[in-house]
Design a protein that fits this description.
Homodimer. Only the dimer is catalytically active, as the active sites are constructed of residues from both monomers. Pfam families: Orn_Arg_deC_N. InterPro entries: Ala_racemase/Decarboxylase_C, De-COase2_N, De-COase2_pyr-phos_BS, Orn/DAP/Arg_de-COase, Orn_de-COase, PLP-binding_barrel. There is one protein chain. This protein is an alpha/beta fold. The chain has two domains: 198 residues, TIM Barrel (Alpha-Beta Barrel); 143 residues, Beta Barrel (Lyase, Ornithine Decarboxylase, Chain A, domain 1), CATH 2.40.37. 30% of the residues lie in helices and 22% in strands. It contains 13 helices and 19 strands. Helix 3 crosses helix 4 and helix 9 packs parallel to helix 10. The structure holds pyridoxal-5'-phosphate. Pyridoxal-5'-phosphate (PLP) binds next to helix 11.
């Protein structure tokens, strides 16, 4: 049945109608921000006050994270409140932090894994393989063998060659046909690499049938860091088209996987409202719905602190100005990989200047007439290792001072390298601003 033949509904589910509704932005869950700030500030302060760059061992002054597991917990509650029908399968690739994974396990989430190592990390926590989806349409044969051996059956595919591979290695897999989406409004586009277009799905279903494979789901991803919730309407409509098409080939689709793309900021409520409405219109109620959120869960939960390892004074004789280049001990080859791979613009803030802790002061009237301009650089010898080209602070910062950056949980440490011999393993100090999460984790 084509989407146009769906049962009419009296509700107006057009995009315009949905976003014109009184959607609560952020007031949905008490964000416990002040408690979190207090705990994060305390953790940052306690750590940096123990370090003296003049006497410390090599690496003692390394960048470190403070992770608020309470924030992950709040995001989960917010998800449940807004997308009750969608069971989250956390995208491990986004940040495979062991405590985050453990908390999400306690909360009953599933997991989206894309490789053998991710699958092993999840199964080693005692998670049942049925809670894992191997959401990688182009799998490495040996990883697929491993997944089959470990009992991971749910997996995505989007092309003919992959079907032959699956037939050979994992013939009793539970297959999700990943379809192409319009991800042009997203930060990181995925559909130029993955997803079958609707004019190829019949051929894929026909081959799957011929090979005796079992197609049970339809999957899509509207692109990571999506900005246009309308993409969900079209994707759900297309998913319904494939559900009906699959029935023609004798497949009973029982799950739709709506992927990721959500951000943890105030866009989440309007995004989820559009998705929930689209599911209601296009996806029959007996069909299970799962999602693969990554960034949404962890983006805001991690703060990183970096120390100033070097400074260069830049004087402009013509203008009569002095500015500074600050070199930090972390950069785009490390945890700021998100600048390159995830198009992020991390915002530097002063943590420690001389003997003064400055955490969170920027929020309360930080601007003064005599601001000093800084550019911020990473520690490697590559000119690309550049974090921020112009930021103003009132303090004169020097070697041994510290900066911090919020919202550093998504696609940061997961893609850090050891380029130039710098470490990609940084300490994480865990705090928990929600008693519910503390109880679950035994903190
Ligand atoms: C298949 C798949 N699922 C889920 C995700 C997570 O996306 P996000 O972090 O936007 O939620 C990604 C990100 O690349 C992905 O490729």
């Amino acid at each position: 049945m084509a989407p146009s033949a769906l049962t009419p509904t009296t509700e107006d589910y057009s995009y315009e109608a949905i976003i014109s509704k009184d959607i609560s932005l952020g007031g949905v869950v008490d964000h416990g921000v002040s408690k979190a700030k207090e705990l994060i500030g305390h953790a940052l302060k306690s750590r940096v006050e123990t370090i003296d760059q003049n006497t410390c061992e090599a690496g003692e002054e390394d960048a470190f994270f403070v992770a608020d597991l309470g924030e992950v917990y709040r995001q989960h509650l917010r998800w449940k409140k807004n997308l009750a029908r969608v069971k989250p399968h956390y995208a491990v690739k986004c940040n495979p932090d062991p405590q985050v994974l453990r908390l999400l396990n306690e909360l009953g989430c599933g997991y989206d894994c894309a490789s053998k190592a991710e699958i092993d990390q999840i199964l080693e926590m005692g998670v049942d393989p049925s809670r894992v989806i191997y959401a990688q349409p182009c799998k490495t044969k040996s990883h697929l063998r491993h997944a089959a051996l470990k009992g991971v059956k749910q997996m995505t595919f989007d092309n003919i060659d992959e079907l032959y591979k699956i037939k050979q290695i994992s013939p009793d897999a539970e297959l999700f046909l990943r379809i192409h989406t319009d991800d042009s409004g997203s930060l990181v586009r995925l559909s130029q690499k993955y997803g079958a277009s609707l004019d190829t799905t019949a051929e894929l279903l026909e081959l799957a049938k011929k090979l005796g494979l079992n197609v049970v789901g339809v999957a899509f991803h509207i692109g990571s860091g999506a900005t246009d919730p309308k993409a969900f309407l079209k994707a759900c409509q297309d998913a319904r088209f494939v559900i009906d098409q699959a029935a023609v080939y004798g497949f009973e689709i029982h799950t739709v996987d709506v992927g990721g793309g959500f951000t943890g900021d105030k866009t989440f409520e309007p995004f989820s409202a559009v998705l929930a409405a689209a599911l209601e219109v296009y996806i029959p109620p007996h069909i299970r719905v799962i999602g693969e959120p990554g960034r949404y869960y962890v983006g805001t939960a991690f703060t990183i602190a970096c120390s100033v390892i070097a400074r260069r004074t830049v004087t402009d004789a013509t203008l009569g100005t002095t500015s500074y280049m600050l070199y930090l001990n972390d950069g785009v080859y490390g945890n700021f990989s998100s600048i390159m791979y995830d198009h992020q613009h991390p915002v530097p803030m002063v943590l420690k200047a001389g003997n003064d802790i400055k955490y969170d002061v920027r929020r309360s009237g930080y601007d003064t007439p005599s601001m000093i301009e800084y550019s911020i650089w990473g520690p490697t010898c590559d000119g690309l290792d550049h974090i921020n080209s112009s930021v103003m602070f009132p303090e004169i910062l020097d070697v041994g001072d510290w900066l911090y950056f919020e919202d550093m949980g998504a696609y940061t440490k997961a893609s850090a390298t050891r380029f130039n011999g710098f470490t990609n393993s940084h300490e994480v100090i865990y705090i928990c601003s929600e008693p519910g999460a503390s109880a679950l984790l035994g903190f």
